[in-house]
Write a structure and sequence with these properties.
This protein is mostly helical and about 375 residues long. Among the domains are: about 150 residues, Serine Threonine Protein Phosphatase 5, Tetratricopeptide repeat, CATH 1.25.40.10; about 90 residues, Tetratricopeptide repeat domain (Serine Threonine Protein Phosphatase 5, Tetratricopeptide repeat, Alpha Horseshoe), CATH 1.25.40. About 75% of the residues lie in helices and about 0% in strands. The protein has a two-stranded antiparallel ribbon. Helix 2 runs antiparallel to helix 3. The radius of gyration is 46 Å and the shape is elongated. It starts with a helix and ends with a helix. About 0% of the residues have low confidence.
Length: about 375
């Protein structure tokens, strides 16, 4: 109803403004010469004003006034034949009736073909409409309106953050993820999500800030795939191919081929293996390395000490070569370090321990075993000196 009242008032004012000149007495339309005289007067006042503020000299003022006078005379002479046009009473009311009829005609047409009884849809009603029938953009706009009203709505920021990322609005996504962390606290998912958009923003480079976020996420949840993925990526970017290979292999052992990140992980693993000169092997080849067979043991028992030692050294060298191809085999490293101890080769044992540390840096239990093995080697080496 309010719309119709406002529309009626506007229509009345516009119509009255158009009709007012026609209803004035006399009904005589002004001649063109009358306008020329008004222009002449205005120009004279302008010239006098310029003269008073020393914008022009008195000679220039006189010349300008003379020029304006000549123009007025010429205009009057050219329009001397013009006559005032007098509008008759019947013609005047015909014009008034035509102008007044137009809005009435428009209203009648709308009432016949329009839907004047359709209720208004307020902004609140549009925002609360069925979300399934709205586009992503309209839903985002709705959420943004809410966040303007309540910028401390952490759940709201958590909702819009992935939408911004999907739409390619990376800066907005970073801001939304930061607000989510600030308002709702840290979780592995929130930490790794912010780290991800920071990597995207830096064209795929794992920045220091992003690396810190991924480490915190991995510490809170060692099984968080996203943080482990980017940590492996960071190792390769920071020039640590051995650690990168280990990280990628560990990540891929628990992955399914359907996971969308697997092709990228495999490509990075292959690239890092290429830097190390390692021939890529499928994860299934990381099984337990075989030990000596029963026939090997029997043959060793029939040999003299020198031949037996030579045979054992050959088997140890073979084991070391296999570990170079498959550095993630924990049992193989344990056997190799123990074999060097039996053979009395502390320097080779230390080298094997160092390689094993790099190969399995995230295996806390194995790292503890390596520390104990290193102490044992040092003790034996000290006792022999």
């Amino acid at each position: 109803m309010l719309f119709w009242i406002v529309a009626a008032i506007i229509t009345f004012l516009v119509t009255a403004g158009v009709l007012y000149p026609l209803t004035r007495g006399g009904g005589t339309l002004a001649l063109e010469s009358d306008y020329d005289r008004e222009i002449y007067k205005a120009r004279m006042e302008e010239i006098d004003n310029d003269l008073s503020i020393d914008r022009i000299s008195s000679e220039e003022a006189n010349a300008a006034k003379a020029e304006e006078g000549r123009r007025l005379i010429a205009s009057t002479q050219s329009g001397s034949s013009s006559k005032a046009i007098k509008v008759s009473g019947s013609n005047k009311w015909a014009v008034i009736g035509s102008i007044a009829f137009l809005p009435l005609f428009t209203i009648v047409i709308y009432l016949m073909s329009g839907t004047p009884d359709l209720p208004d849809q307020t902004l609140a009603a549009r925002l609360s409409a069925d979300p399934e029938r709205q586009s992503i953009t309209s839903l985002l706009e709705r959420a943004e309106v809410q966040l303007v009203r309540n910028p401390n709505d952490g759940k709201g920021w958590a909702v819009v953050a992935p939408v911004y990322l999907r739409l390619g609005r990376i800066d907005d996504a970073i801001n939304a993820y930061r607000n989510t962390l600030r308002l709702l606290g840290e979780t592995p998912v929130r930490l790794s999500s912010l780290g991800e958009v920071l990597v995207i923003s830096s064209q795929g480079v794992v920045t220091d800030e992003a690396l810190d976020l991924f480490k915190r996420a991995a510490d809170a949840s060692p099984e968080d795939v996203k943080s482990r993925f980017f940590l492996a990526l960071a190792l390769g970017q920071n020039g640590e191919p051995v650690k990168a290979v280990v990280a990628w292999e560990k990540l891929l052992t628990k992955a399914t081929d359907q996971a969308p990140w697997v092709p990228v992980a495999k490509a990075n693993l292959k690239a890092q293996q290429g830097l190390l000169g390692i021939k890529p092997t499928p994860p299934s080849t990381t099984a337990e390395l075989p030990g000596p067979s029963q026939s090997d043991i029997q043959a060793a028992g029939q040999m003299d000490a020198t031949a037996r030692t030579s045979m054992i050294e050959g088997m140890v060298a073979n084991l070391a070569a296999k570990l170079d191809e498959d550095p993630t085999n924990e049992a193989g490293w344990r056997r190799l370090i123990r074999s060097y101890g039996v053979l009395g080769k502390p320097e080779e044992a230390r080298q094997a321990i160092a390689k094993a540390r790099l190969a399995l840096p995230d295996n806390a239990e194995f790292q503890k075993h390596l520390n104990e093995a290193e102490k044992s080697v040092q003790n034996k080496d000290g006792a022999t000196q």
